[in-house]
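pls ignore typos typing on phone
uridine-5'-diphosphate + seq
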Amino acid sequence: MKHILCIVGTRPEGIKMAPLIKALKREPWAKVTVLATAQHRDLLDQVLALFDIRPDVDLDIMRANQQLPELTARLITALDEKFTELAPDVVLAQGDTTTVMTAALVAFYRRIPFGHVEAGLRTHDLDNPFPEEMNRLVAGHLARWHFVPTGRSRQNLLREGIDDAAIHVTGNTVIDALLEVAATDWPLDVPLDASKRLVLVTAHRRENFGEPFRAVCRAIRTLVERHVDIEVLYPVHPNPNVQAVVHELLGDHPRIRLCAPLDYAPFVEAQKRAHLILTDSGGVQEEAPALGKPVLVMRIETERPEAVDEGVVRLVGTDEARIVHEASRLLDDPQAYREMARGVSPYGDGKAAQRIVAVLHDALVGNTEAAAGR
Ligand code: UD1
Ligand code: UDP
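k done
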C-alpha cells in the first residue's frame, strides 16, 4: 500500500481534487488520507459535502480577513506537524493557493515526493495574479510529478527547465467535476426574472482590490442601467474586501441580485442558465467554455490563454468603459455572441483524474498491464 496525502484548502481545490480523491480511493494499492487546511472554511465545506468527501484531518486554518504572511506561517507550522505524524509516501495538491505553495514547501523540507495537479499555468507576471503566480512557481519547482492540463502548460514548464519525463498532460480535473455535476439539472434557489437575460458575475482577486475592483462594480451597474432586458446574478465571495465594495456599489439595484456564494451544483446550474459570464475566476474560465457560455475576464492577464485563442473567452481588464463596451457588444450583436458561444473544452475531456491515477500507479507500484489498460 502507498499512503497518499491529498491536500485541500479552498473552494476550487475542493472541486478540482474531488475527482482525483474519489478515483484514488477506488485503487486497492492506495491508502488515501484527505487533509483539509480549511484555508476556506465555509466554501470548502460546501464542496466537500457535495462530493461526499470527509476530511481525515482538518487544520481549521481560516481567520477572518487573513493576511498572506500570517496565513503562510500558520500553514507551514500546522502542515509540518501533520506531515511528520502521518509520514505519507506522496503529497498531492492542486493549483496555486497559499495552501498549495506551503504544502509543496513542507513536503520538500520533509523529503516527501510532491505531485502538482494543474501544473504549468503561468502569466509570467508576479503581480498578476497576486500571489498565485509566485505560489505556482514555488510548487512547480518542488514537484516530482507535474500534472498539466494542456500542451501550453507543458511548454511553460519545459521553458523553465523542468524534465519532460516528470510532466504529464492529463487535462484539468475541473472538467471531470463539471461533467459529473452538469449532467443533472439542479434547483437554483434564487428568485430570477425568467423574462430577462441572465448575466452571471463573480470577482475576488486580491490584485484587483481597491480602485480596479470599484471600477468593475461601476461597470456592472452601468451595464444593467443601459440594458433593461438583463438581470445580474452575483454570488459574492466572502472575502470582506470584496463584500464591502460590492454591497456599497451594487446593493440597491433592482436588477442586480447579490447572494451568498452558491453551492457548486447550483452555481453550475447558474452557468448553464447564463447568457453571459463576467468573472476574474480561474475555474469559471475553464468551465464556462465547456458549457458554451461566452466569458469576459476582468483581469489584465490570464494564465489560461487556450480559451482566449479559441475565441470563446476575452480578456477585458478592469477598466470600466472597456468592460461596458465588450459586454454591450455581446448583448447587442447576435453574430458576435454566436462566435463566442461555441462550446469548446480546451482544458479537458473528463478523464484527467484517471490519467493522474495511472501515472501514480506506474511510478509507485510499477507499470503493470492493469495500469496500461486504464
Ligand atoms: C483564495 C486564494 C485564491 C483563490 C481563492 C478561491 C490565496 C492567497 N488565495 O483567495 O488563489 O483563487 O481562494 O476562492 O491562496 N472567507 C470566509 N469564508 C470562506 C472563505 C473565505 O469568510 O469560506 C473570508 C475570510 O475572511 C478569509 C478571506 O475570505 O480571511 C480570504 O480568504 P483567503 O483564502 O485568504 O483568500 P481568497 O481571497 O479567498
Ligand atoms: N463557484 C461556486 N460557487 C460560486 C462561485 C464559484 O461553486 O458562488 C465555483 C466555480 O464553478 C469554480 C470555482 O468555484 O469551479 C472557482 O472558484 P473561485 O472563483 O473562488 O477560485 P479560482 O478558480 O479563481 O481560484
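The chain is about 45% helix and 15% strand. The longest strand covers residues 2-8. more later
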